[in-house]
Automatic annotation (TrEMBL):
The gene is Bri3bp. Pfam families: BRI3BP (PF14965). This is BRI3B protein. The chain crosses the membrane at residues 57-82, 89-109, 115-137. It comes from the Eukaryota. One of its GO terms (cellular component) is mitochondrion. It comes from Columbina picui. Keywords: Membrane, Transmembrane, Transmembrane helix.
Length: 176
């Protein structure tokens, strides 16, 4: 049984590696189109290179913002699709993806646990972002501000009516 799970995790890790390699190639091609040499990204992060060429800093900031936008679009679409597929059982898919991500990271950095900390923190952050505070949950349950204000106004009216009834009944009780 342990050999089966060992092979299963190896194949899972290889599949995720291929997927990540594909995403990395797409990202480097996109950076090449923008004029950023993706083969030597550390050169762009050095303070001396940014100080000597301020346009490079602007390109770096643009690339980071583009990466954030691309990642948020991908995660938003992916989790919206999962939410549509699983419906009320979306939490099961979240837990399964979280577990598989942790297994992948722990298997990948098996000999070097210090390097596994940052990816695990990222996975935990994505897990919490896809929870009840995430965009997909708020989008489905939120309505316009005017509708919320109307609902709140009606709740206040009902509360005032109930309060006046309680005060009237207390007044009647003290009069008798």
């Amino acid at each position: 049984i342990s050999q089966f799970f060992s092979r299963l995790t190896e194949r899972f890790v290889n599949g995720v590696d291929i997927l990540m390699d594909t995403f990395w190639r797409i990202w480097t091609d996109l950076l090449d189109v923008l004029g950023i040499d993706a083969s030597n990204l550390t050169h762009y992060f050095s303070p001396a290179a940014i100080a000597n060429n301020p346009t490079r800093a602007l390109l770096l900031i643009g690339a980071i913002l583009l990466a954030y936008w691309f990642l948020s679009l991908f995660l938003g679409f992916f989790f919206y699709l999962l939410h549509m597929l699983f419906g009320r059982f979306f939490w099961i898919a979240r837990v399964a993806l979280f577990t598989l991500s942790c297994v992948y990271i722990l298997q990948k950095y098996e000999g070097d646990p210090e390097h596994a900390v940052l990816p695990l923190c990222f996975v935990v952050a994505v897990y919490f972002m896809t929870g009840p505070v995430g965009f997909y949950w708020r989008r489905n349950s939120s309505s316009s501000l005017e509708e919320k204000m109307d609902h709140l106004d009606s709740q206040i009216r009902l509360l005032n009516i109930r309060l006046s009834r309680v005060i009237e009944s207390l007044d009647r009780g003290s009069d008798q």
